[in-house]
Write a structure and sequence with these properties.
alpha/beta; about 15% strand; binds pyridoxal-5'-phosphate; transferase; pyridoxal phosphate; PyrdxlP-dep_Trfase; Putative transcriptional regulator, GntR family
Length: about 400
Amino acid sequence: MPDFWDLHYAQRVQLMKSSAIRDLLKLTEQPEVISFAGGLPAAEIFPVEKVASATQKVLQERGVQALQYGPSEGYRPLLELIAQTSSRDGLTITPENIFIVSGSQQGLDFVGRLLVNPGDLVLVESPTYMGALQAMAPYGADYITVPSDENGLRTDALEEMLALKPKLMYVLPNFQNPSGVTLSLERRKRLVELANRYGVPVVEDDPYSQLRFEGEPLPSLLTLDSQLRKSEGEPYRGNIIQLNTFSKVLTPGLRVAWIVASPELVRKLVQTKQGADLHTASLNQLIVHELLREGFIEQHIPLIRRTYGERRNIMLQAMEEHFPAGIRWTRPQGGMFLWVVLPEGLNSTELLREAVKENVAFVPGTPFHAQGGGENTLRLSFSNATPEQIREGIARLGRVFHKALAETAVKA
Ligand SMILES: Cc1ncc(COP(=O)(O)O)c(C=O)c1O
């Protein structure tokens, strides 16, 4: 029987999906479970004392400002500092190009609010970040997908999808969540060129590029687009909307992130923000500004890179040792995740139930697939578990996979 609220929800609430997997993942929150499921940064390297001293300094020196309402676009000195460090390689970013949001997740919601009408096609990679799918679904986004491989989304399959005239395209070029793969330079150039030709806005979600522990950095889509437009010296005015965040390079608890986009779009975002939460917490923006200004974030990033690089190595080595033949996985050069492909016929959601009995957890791959599929895939996060937990957790997972394969062999 429908309850009181079922009779009162707006139509869009039907478009909000609560995933069955989320309920299953609740089981993984028990302390005895070694979880590779959540996308959590390593908590033991959070710079707690540094944040405490910056907070104290901010309150002493700019206390009233830190505790007062602030402008919707963000704290001006923070906008200026970000603009200054973003302007390079043919890209000119002014404070008018920048907009502070309460986490890049809010940026995804705002993009949906500003650009998506019910029934609009939104082009995403397969697999893609499920939080983006959740953010834009209530606005009526109809997702279409482009496949990806070890070099990121397949630009050879892109043109026919762009010909369907999607309203926007959502991409993660660096150490993609969930797959960990990085879009190659050649494909980046092709993507930017095609998006320009078809006049499609591109949301470049980039929380992980600074967490590269191997290989050379690649130019962002924003930079390549600016080079293509030869717009150096002019504030960026192209079709790329870039989402960035302090969540992975400092701490997610502060909820400070920023969008780089054309000043025209930023002005619309300001109106959206006024209706949502007025502005991102002033105190948090001032803390981030202080830590950025004094160079702390820059100094802290190498520790995060080192920690995640080590953990990825340990995870890869343990997988080599414990996983049965026939299972494939990615080898990310940065970020927090890797992606596992089980032999056809194995179902990772069913295997999660078995894994939880062994006190180990991962995220099954299906919710990352906007158009279904991926039953035999799963995501492992290597950022949050300690090296000992990684070794032990992968050994347990190896046992679960061996058992499942032995059972399917018996059935066959
Ligand atoms: C691809 C991607 N986009 C956005 C977010 C949200 O980040 P934030 O903490 O900035 O809201 C995440 C968080 O895991 C993510 O992986």
